[in-house]
Amino acid sequence: MNGEVVILLDGKLSFDALQRRLVTAPSNARKLVAEVPASYVAFDVLAAAGVDLRTQRWTVRRGRLEKLASNWAAGPLQLSPVTDSLDEAQERFDVLPDAMGIEGLVVKGAATRYIGGRRGWVKVNSVGVAVFYEFTRRTYDQDSSRSRGA
């Protein structure tokens, strides 16, 4: 599974609390686990039931991940939200950084396959949703942070 460990404090993501949890002495670990619980947010699944899914398109992998997540009890395992709506992405981009401390959005192509060592996504932060929109219409050049026509 591909995802991220997160800690919410007062409804916002806290990277500082996560860092403290990661470097705490074993003698303090149980106390911090109880006082400041962490969650794992799953973004992608690379294998399931012994089947390598890396060659499958993201939409197929996401479907498998959603099926796995349907069996998770409420708690530390969470499924990342997704949308293919530009309006919804714009709203999330406008609201979530201040409301929850989220740095930005991750944009993945529906047909992308997982290739180890190669980044098949773009993180959109303060650059703006214009980059998200442009990415949906064109090919994004990650090296120069400029787009080029597809």
Q: Could you describe the 3D structure shown?
A:
The chain has 150 residues and is an alpha+beta fold. It contains 5 helices and 11 strands. The strands form 5 sheets. It has a 3-stranded mixed β-sheet. It is globular.
Helix/strand layout:
Elements: E1 2-6, E2 8-9, E3 12-13, H1 15-23, H2 26-35, E4 39-44, E5 47-48, E6 51-52, H3 58-69, E7 77-79, H4 86-100, E8 105-108, E9 121-124, H5 129-137, E10 139-141, E11 146-148
Q: What is the strand tally?
A: 11
- Low-pLDDT residue spans: 128-150
Spatial gap, N to C terminus = 31 Å
Number of H- or I-type helical stretches: 5
Lateral strand order in the biggest sheet: 1-4-7
Largest sheet: 3 strands, mixed
Q: What is the mean pLDDT? A: 80
Q: In percent, how helical is the residue content?
A: 25-40%
Secondary structure class reads alpha+beta
Helix and strand pattern: EEEHHEEEHEHEEHEE
β content, as a range?
A: 15-25%
What does the overall shape look like?
Answer: globular
Rg result: 17 Å
Give a concise summary.
This protein is of the alpha+beta class and 150 residues long. It contains five helices and eleven strands; from the N terminus they run βββααβββαβαββαββ. Residues 128-150 have low confidence and may be disordered.
